[in-house]
Amino acid sequence: MCGDIGTTSKVCAFYSFTGILFTAFVGIMLSTQPEFITGIENISEAKSNAFGAMGMFLATFALSLIGLARGSGADEKESDSGIDGGYQLSNVNPQYGSHRYD
């Protein structure tokens, strides 16, 4: 499924971007309106953890962008081979599928 660096980087970039949005939302909520998030004993520690997690998601997003940049060069090398997708029909029977059997 995720055999090449480009596909893996796309998945990680999407996941990281979603994590950045969520942890930013939680951090902003803890900073501005902590009364709406219940069950937290130490709000300043929770806010620090939310923004720390956002930093980790930012680092993962940056690494994913680097992976996307490096993966795009590999795609160009594969397309120069002259064979689309690496598949080629053999010339064993060129009449295959052209006759009707009535």
In short:
With 102 residues, this protein is mainly alpha-helical.
Descriptive report:
By secondary structure, the protein is an all-alpha fold. The chain has a domain at 5-71. It contains 2 helices and no strands. The protein has helices at residues 5-32, 43-79. The mean pLDDT is 82.
Structural class: mainly alpha
Share of helical residues:
55-70%
Biggest β-sheet description: none
- H/E topology pattern: HH
Q: List low-pLDDT spans.
A: none
Structure summary, number of beta strands: 0
Portion of residues in beta strands equals under 5%
What is the mean pLDDT? 82
Transmembrane segments: 12-30, 50-69
Keywords: Membrane, Transmembrane, Transmembrane helix
Region (Disordered): 72-102
What are its keywords?
single chain, 102 residues, mainly alpha
Task: Please write out the topology.
Blueprint: H1 5-32, H2 43-79
